[in-house]
Amino acid sequence: MEIRVEKTFRVDAPIDRVWEFLTDPEQVVECVPGAELTEKSEREFSGRLGIKVGPVQAKYRGEGRFVELDRERHTMRVVAHGAGDGSADVEMRGELRALEGGGTESSVEAVANVGGRMAQMGSRLIKFVSDRLFDQFVARVRERLEEGGASG
Known about the structure:
Layout: E1 2-11, H1 15-22, H2 25-29, E2 35-40, E3 44-53, E4 56-70, E5 75-84, E6 86-98, E7 104-115, H3 123-145
Antiparallel strand pairs: 1-7, 2-3, 3-4, 4-5, 5-6, 6-7
């Protein structure tokens, strides 16, 4: 089952700080509910993710890779694959844009192909849960980057 996500969010922090944060798997994983990083190199990372959709709980082990990191244009592309209680393949594209006043806008487009137990839950429920998880991710990113948060 294919799930598409397109989101835009703003962070009240300079673009270079947001870039450094979002391209560091160690910092990003702290903002992803149910995620744990187990290994990382310059462009590759692996970890675990536990997710609950309705009555179904699934656990995945997976790996991801930055296939594009353009610091000058502030664009990135990540591909990831996970397996466990089913499978999930994800391709995510992200772009940052500096805003007047020093903030940053982040645009994200992701396509996930989900199989196994999660796919049985239906696309509407999965979309609802993914929206909730994304909102939690954004709140945690803002907590860490905006005024009063830890410096990067």
